[in-house]
Every structure is written in structure tokens, then in C-alpha cells.
Known about the structure:
Blueprint: H1 5-34, H2 40-59, H3 63-74, H4 76-80, H5 84-110, H6 116-121, H7 124-143, H8 148-151, H9 161-170, H10 174-182, H11 186-200, H12 217-239, H13 249-266, H14 268-273, H15 278-315
Helix pairs in contact: 1-2, 1-3, 1-7, 2-3, 2-5, 2-7, 2-15, 3-5, 5-7, 7-15, 9-10, 9-13, 11-12, 12-13
Amino acid sequence: MTLSSQEMTKYLLVAAAFSLSVLGWASVDTLIGRSTSDWATAIGAFSLVAIVFLCASLIFRERKSRAILVFSVFLPSLFFSPSLAHLAFVFFSGFMLFRGMGKVEEDMNLRLKLSLKKSMGAGVFAFSFSIALLIASAYYTHIRFSSWEDLVPRFTLAQGSGDALLWAMGTVYPELGKIRKDGMTVDSFLHGMIASKKAADEGPVFTPLSPNGDMPEDELLLSKEAELSLGRLQMSRLAGRAVSGDEKVSDVLGEAFRHKIVALVSGDKAKEDLPAGVFPFFLSLLLFVTVLSLSSLLQWVWISGAALFMGLLIRSGVFSVERIQTEREVLR
Length: 332
């Protein structure tokens, strides 16, 4: 029996989804075991899986073919994190992904003019949420019986978080994005804060003046240095180490975030007051939020990649866009 080009494309998408999923889950398992923060391979693999999923959502109309694709994405994770709890999350995530594919089809059917990007946007969150949930579940499966001594040093997720935080906030507050883009140092940041504060101050300020009416130069320098020292001291308390002023603001923010989390996990009071099982769950929850946030930033990259691939399939004649007559209900 000869397969049509459309059927061949569907088989290739399922095979690609399974192969890339195995690579992605193997990368996650290696990263969890080695307690490293180099997630480039895993991000690349799951990004390609996301593109395959979005393309399949557009062309897979049978429920059976959708189910096969869904489990080809998630079942490989069981090979690396075999547990009943993780199996339950696999089925829940599979259901969400299946519903996500249905939402893509529903959006396509409701539109009079075909818009692949907008239709894929209806189901992309289901993929982001499901992947983040299963990665967090695999992480929890691995660390749930870990000792305190293993939990604290392995927490390296916050490395580079300051740069990511400034990048995200820079989309809303351009001045914060400028700090990241310019690689602003702590001293430069503090100088700007001091200047802004002085400009905003109102009312007369009584200071010793020189004969010509200006503050003496040596006292002016001492005043600025005192304010800088105070600012460095406050940044040092946040980061949990001494800050000289030459460090990048993004690096200090990342260290401050990590310092607060590690202090929470390793504190003696926390050990005494909270059960040991809380912190593996807390770290897994933090990983879930981190992965979900990152995937949310990558969603439009995935949608653009899938739209480009579908455009190539349409141009090559594998699929076509046709016009059909339709009826719709309106309220008059």
C-alpha cells in the first residue's frame, strides 16, 4: 500500500516527537542527577517537540492519531522517572495536551479566514504547562528522599536569574531593560539612584558651605562615598557576600535570589519547624514556575517556527488552503 504525502508527514511527525522527547527527557534526567544549570540541550529538544506538537495540532484530526502523538511526547519520561505519582502526572499532562490539540482545531473551525499562528496560540499553553509539570514531577521523584546536605548544594536553578528577571521586567519598564543591556555595574546603578534621589528632594538643605557658597569639595566627595558605601552594604546583605561595586547588577540580583532560597532551605529553624518533605516539594514547585515562565517567553518562537514549517508544507503541495462555503448564525 502506497502512503500519501500527508500520511507520510504524519508518521514523520510522530517519529520526530518521540525521538526528540527521548532526547529531552534524557537531558533532564542528566541535569537533575548532576545538579547542573546547563539546560541548553533540554530547552532545544523540547522547543523542537513544541513545534512538532503545534504542527500536528493543525493536521491531526483523528482522536487516535492525537493520542499516539501525546503519549509519544510524555511516555519516555517514565523510563527516567519510574514512579506511580509521576505516572499519574503523565496521564494528567497527556489529557491537557490532548485538550490543547482540540482547542487548536476548535479555533480553526470558528475562523472564517485561516490564521495558523492565532489557532496555534489557542493550544500552546497546554504544552508549556504540561512540560513544566512533568519536569517538576521528575525532579521531585529524584530528590524526595534526599538529605539536607544534598538539597542545598544542588539548588543552582537561580544562576542567571537576575539577567532573566531584568530582561522580563524590561519589556514593561524600559529603564530596567537598559540596566541589563548596558551591563550596568553596582556603582553605576547606585550613582544613578543617588542622583535621582537628590533631584527629587524638595526643600532647603543646610550644609556647611565654603566661602564661595558651595559645599567643600572634600566633604562632597566624603558624602558621595558614604552613600555609595551604604548602598554597597545593602546590596551585600541581599547577595549574602561582600559587594565591591564592580559587579553587574544582574549578577548580584541572581545571587540575592539564590541566597534567599538557600537560606530558607538550609536554616536551622526551618529544619526544626517544618517536615523534611516540604522542601523537595518547594524546590520542585520553584522549578515548575521557572520552566513555565521560560516556556511562556518561548511560546511565540515555537509558534513562528511551526508556522514556517507549515508554510513550507503548503508551498510544497503536501497540504493546501481551500475556500469552502459555510453557514453561521447571527443575532439580528
